[in-house]
């Protein structure tokens, strides 16, 4: 398996045409393309369908966070759209995650749909321990809070979590090796952290056991995205 089978490219652009051009350009380099707020608010479900029509898998990164009924209804629409993966905020609580997961599983059996992977967002990679404590009001250590949320997601029957590449080992130890960890906050040694606080290089994240790494600016904001991917490959393959 190549590392590119674990790469999710974040299509953080504001028009469908540009997003589809990126999919055409980088289609052979990534396993999954991520549609987040910016693109979805501009282009809606059609862009998801258009990416899928090109034979590519979509991670719908809308981080659902609401009451159980509302999240579940949105999740059912995402499942019918045929996405490969979508996410909900674990801090929405156990009941929300569980009802969402069970309802999606039931729908998929009933309508013969391939069940999307449901991933719980733990603590955003743009937060650090100080922000979590002083602004969000969580007084556990950041690692303990991520562990708590990951265990909650597992208890709800989710397929895995989004967490920083620095927490992968701890999550795998506590939740089992088959519990997926999707890691954003990936930065090469030659790109700035931007708004991300808990980062690692692609090589470190993969070594830590990431099932998927999410990369946006580290590829798309580079002058030549394909060259950037080749440099990352070189770094990963160098002992
Ligand atoms: O440009 P960069 O590689 O930092 O992009 C990371 C992507 O991953 C963004 O689209 C962001 O919304 C997403 N993401 C994240 N942290 C999370 C969940 C998703 O950075 N916890």
Brief rundown of the structure:
The chain is α/β, with parallel strands linked by helices.
Description:
The chain is α/β, with parallel strands linked by helices and 239 residues long. The chain has a single domain (3-238), classed as Aldolase class I (TIM Barrel, Alpha-Beta Barrel), CATH 3.20.20.70. It has helices spanning 16-26, 37-43, 45-53, 68-81, 94-110, 129-134, 142-155, 168-175, 202-207, 217-220, 225-237, and strands at residues 7-10, 32-35, 57-64, 85-89, 117-121, 160-162, 180-183, 212-215. The chain has an eight-stranded parallel beta barrel, surrounded by five helices. The two termini are 17 Å apart. The mean pLDDT is 96. Cytidine-5'-monophosphate binds next to β8 and α10.
CATH level-two architecture: Alpha-Beta Barrel
Radius of gyration: 17 Å
Quickly count the domains. Answer: 1
| Portion in strands | 15-25%
What structural class is derived from the secondary structure elements?
Answer: alpha/beta
The bound ligands are: cytidine-5'-monophosphate
Between the first and last Cα atoms, what is the distance in angstroms?
17 Å
- Rounded average pLDDT: 96
CATH T-level topology: TIM Barrel
* Highest-level CATH class: Alpha Beta
Largest sheet: 8 strands, parallel, barrel
Helix fraction by DSSP (H/I, runs of at least 4): 40-55%
- How are strands sequenced across the largest beta sheet? 1-2-3-4-5-6-7-8
Task: Give the overall silhouette.
Answer: globular
Low-confidence stretches: none
CATH superfamily: Aldolase class I
Beta-strand segment tally:
8
Question: Secondary-structure element order, as H and E?
Answer: EHEHHEHEHEHHEHEHEHH
Number of helical runs?
11
